[in-house]
């Protein structure tokens, strides 16, 4: 058997089209243009790539993009002052602070300083609490993108066995909450899980968010299961030439694709959906801020 490839890149393009259509309506009918502010502290090359591509796609869907690049040694007080200014700026509907932050900055303090209504990452403690209690919130982009793909592939997820590998606050935990919200039977695995292969073998849905290149082999996968690979790992690729690298996920794609029913590739899977969902969350935040109807199908 060979798995259906869930094309996140194509799916993300359709999400961005819906976002763009809604942005056009907001402008034409209400004179409002959604705005997304992205804050990057330091010069991590990978983060710079993501921030650039977020900014480009923000503009492509017709929204305003505000990029704030701060020195790696920016003080916490200066960063908090910027967040305060963005919180008070009526043209800014979404604020994203790129993680991880340099070590001298308290990540929780900084994230919780963002106005929860503008927290398009969904990392503020108040959004985490709302999601955990099944209330309307800003939903973290990566898990939201994964859920959209799962719903599109399966329809109803109710009663399915889902295993999430990883319990981070940005992927694993909110992913588990969303799957539970869709009535899956959810197991969260992590580095202390006993007999991970056996746990994963139970799953109809496997979401891998570990940060270990190609960790999940095909023989852990139940035949026909759906595999969502969140991992983004850069590894050496000597076959492409000396010093070359390539991106791989947290699952071993070839062996998993041979046994799974459906699988997301890396690149071209979860990553593009994350950015599309960030744009979707910004439109949602803009609509809520202006008391306007929210776009259909862009959030849970
Ligand atoms: N595609 C996208 O848009 C995004 C991709 N990513 C990628 O997703 C991956 C995960 O990111 P993130 O959640 O931030 O990572 P974290 O490092 O925050 O969390 C990793 C999780 O994996 C668990 N883990 C580590 N080793 C093992 C193991 N051997 N067996 C089982 N579990 C293990 C850890 O367990 P413990 O808690 O016990 O330490 C932890 O809960 C990374 O590759 C990252 O680059 C992240 C965000 C967005
Ligand atoms: N506050 C915050 N929010 C985030 O959402 C956030 C963050 N910090 N820090 C870093 C991680 C990582 N992340 C990715 C987004 C898109 C791709 C993506 O589009 N990847 C492409 C490939 C890109 C490439 O070629 O490098 C793909 O998978 O096809 C990857 C990773 C968001 N993150």
From TrEMBL:
It comes from the Bacteria. One of its GO terms (molecular function) is methenyltetrahydrofolate cyclohydrolase activity. Residues 140-288 form the Tetrahydrofolate dehydrogenase/cyclohydrolase NAD(P)-binding domain. GO terms for cellular component: cytosol. Gene3D superfamilies: Leucine Dehydrogenase, chain A, domain 1, NAD(P)-binding Rossmann-like Domain. It catalyses: (6R)-5,10-methylene-5,6,7,8-tetrahydrofolate + NADP(+) = (6R)-5,10-methenyltetrahydrofolate + NADPH; (6R)-5,10-methenyltetrahydrofolate + H2O = (6R)-10-formyltetrahydrofolate + H(+). The keyword DNA-binding does not apply. SUPFAM superfamilies: Aminoacid dehydrogenase-like, N-terminal domain, NAD(P)-binding Rossmann-fold domains. Keywords: Amino-acid biosynthesis, Histidine biosynthesis, Hydrolase, Methionine biosynthesis, Multifunctional enzyme, NADP, One-carbon metabolism, Oxidoreductase, Purine biosynthesis. Pathway: One-carbon metabolism; tetrahydrofolate interconversion. InterPro entries: Aminoacid_DH-like_N_sf, NAD(P)-bd_dom_sf, THF_DH/CycHdrlase, THF_DH/CycHdrlase_cat_dom, THF_DH/CycHdrlase_CS, THF_DH/CycHdrlase_NAD-bd_dom. PROSITE patterns: THF_DHG_CYH_1, THF_DHG_CYH_2. NADP(+) binds at residues 166-168, 232. Its EC number is 1.5.1.5, 3.5.4.9. NCBIfam families: PRK10792.1, PRK14186.1, PRK14188.1. Belongs to the tetrahydrofolate dehydrogenase/cyclohydrolase family. This is Bifunctional protein FolD. It comes from Aliishimia ponticola. The gene is folD.
